[in-house]
Specification:
With about 190 residues, the chain is of the alpha+beta class. It has helices spanning about 10, 55-65, 75-85, 95, 155-160; strands at about 20-25, 30-35, 40-45, 45-50, 65-70, 100, 110, 115-130, 130-145, 165, 175. The chain has one domain (about 10-175): Pnp Oxidase, Chain A (Roll). It is about 15% helix and about 35% strand. Bound molecules: flavin mononucleotide. Flavin mononucleotide binds next to strand 2, strand 4, helix 2 and helix 3.
């Protein structure tokens, strides 16, 4: 027997997010910017991120129409707070966070070297949503450290230890721990 009582959604955070990503963008002078993002949705090749309208990230994406979703792993846990600090405009936030940048494949914003994987995106549309804006991007290509590619060519999320933030803004995460095989398959 299972009896469920109503809970406060804000406190229970029953639906928490996909793995935390760190968005890299550049401003109009080419200076790199970073922001951790936990609120996003993927549908096919589209990613929709919820981003605060006052953030540098929002302004940079509107200006340059490009961004990179970098995926930190367990070894990168501490950097998530560093990339999310409120740096003054014009600061190279990748460098300020103690990370390194490398050129992306198809977009101008750089990729974070230390992180296991990344997805390069081009802006499709934006929509205001309360205090945030929804920004939809087309995911045009991805990069993955060979050390985190399994024999089938999948990004090994367990080996990387991708992180799900579950009590935001408290820095409490669930880390991917193992794969389990389900039954049947969607056609
Ligand atoms: C784990 C984590 C998840 C976050 N998720 C979001 C998010 O989904 N949307 C958002 O606007 N800010 C989010 N933030 C806050 C931004 O990373 C933070 O405000 C950052 O300073 C914005 O940087 P910018 O002004 O350089 O763009 C998150 C922060 C952390 C630590």
């Amino acid at each position: 027997m299972c009896y469920k009582s109503e809970t406060d959604l804000k406190n229970t955070r029953i639906l928490s997010s996909d793995p935390v990503i760190v968005i890299t963008t550049i401003d109009k002078n080419g200076v790199p910017n970073t922001a951790a993002v936990g609120s996003y949705l993927r549908i096919g090749s589209t990613i929709i991120i919820a981003i605060h309208e006052e953030s540098h990230t929002y302004h940079n994406i509107l200006e340059t129409r490009e961004f990179v979703a970098n995926v930190p792993g367990l070894k990168d846990l501490e950097s998530i707070m560093r990339v999310s600090r409120d740096y003054p405009k014009g600061v190279d936030e990748i460098k300020a966070s103690g990370l390194r940048a490398e050129p992306s494949l198809k977009v101008k914003p750089p990729t974070i070297v230390e992180y296991p994987a990344s997805v390069e995106c081009q802006l499709k549309w934006t929509k205001p949503e309360g205090t945030h804006a929804l920004l939809a991007g087309e995911m045009i290509c991805g990069k993955c450290d060979d050390a985190y590619l399994d024999p089938m060519g999948h990004f090994d999320q367990v080996k990387a230890g991708v992180l799900h933030i579950v009590r935001y803004p408290d820095p409490v995460y669930i880390v991917a721990d193992r794969y389990v095989q389900g039954i049947e398959q969607m056609k």
